[in-house]
Design goal:
globular, about 75% helix, mainly alpha
Length: about 250
């Protein structure tokens, strides 16, 4: 037994358990906007951020870790967002009124998130097995969907104005329709890792970061809710990366 492998595997299991907790809370009817769900979800994504990095630093990265990581991401970035999106649609009186004519279709849409995440992660595993390495993702990473819906539950928990309700409906609708598509398309989305290898790519990243700061400031000024920046920045990244993807 390789003792070093315990640390990254422990983090990967933390990612899996955190995503499972979010699913359980959404399915059991618990309050999603209390901050507990978002905190656990964020912790799971932090585990996901560091498990691969630590595995590489310790020299214990391998195909088993890749598979475990993807299975965990499927829960955190696929199942959990689907559960949360369904709950928000089902529980929100605003969504019920606006989407009453197409309620069945809207309630089906969250499951496209899970299907798209599974396809996206399977494709990633195949590319890793083939030895493909790049500063670009092929399609939107599944964890980005988790960040989007984590931000949505915090944003919806602090609604203050009718204008904010309209903004939430528009942003959540865009998330439901666009994010699954962005996950499955074969388009190169830039990563925020491995700086210094490509000056043009570094400039693109800097522009995105600057725009994200402006979005966060705008969300705080408009709604006094900085959490609204999370879903907005995921949409910004998706559209920005899609438009600027290398041919």
């Amino acid at each position: 037994m390789n003792v070093k492998a315990i640390i990254p595997n422990f983090l990967t299991m933390g990612n899996l358990l955190g995503g499972s907790f979010v699913c359980w809370m959404a399915a059991s009817g618990e309050d999603l906007s209390s901050g507990v769900v978002a905190t656990v979800w964020l912790g799971a994504m932090i585990c996901d951020l560091f498990d691969g990095l630590i595995a590489r630093k310790l020299g214990v990265d391998g195909p088993m870790g890749v598979q475990l990581d993807s299975l965990s991401d499927l829960v955190t970035g696929g199942l959990a967002p689907a559960f949360v999106a369904y709950r928000l649609i089902s529980d929100s009186e605003y969504c019920t009124v606006v989407f009453s004519e197409i309620s069945t279709l809207v309630r089906i849409l969250p499951w496209a998130i899970t299907v798209a995440a599974a396809y996206r992660l399977a494709r990633y595993n195949v590319s890793v097995a083939n030895g493909d390495k790049s500063n670009y993702f092929e399609g939107l990473p599944a964890p980005a969907t988790g960040i989007f819906w984590m931000g949505m539950i915090l944003w919806m928990g602090g609604i203050k104005t009718p204008q904010e309700i309209s903004a939430i409906l528009v942003v959540s609708g865009m998330g439901l329709l666009l994010l699954p598509v962005f996950m499955v398309i074969k388009r190169k989305f830039f990563t925020l890792k491995e700086w210094g290898d490509d000056s043009v790519l570094d400039k693109t990243r800097m522009i995105f970061i600057a725009l994200s700061v402006l979005v966060a400031a705008g969300a705080f000024i408009a709604w006094h809710n900085v959490f609204a920046a999370a879903p907005l920045c995921v949409l910004l990244y998706s559209c920005f990366a899609f438009v600027l993807a290398p041919k």
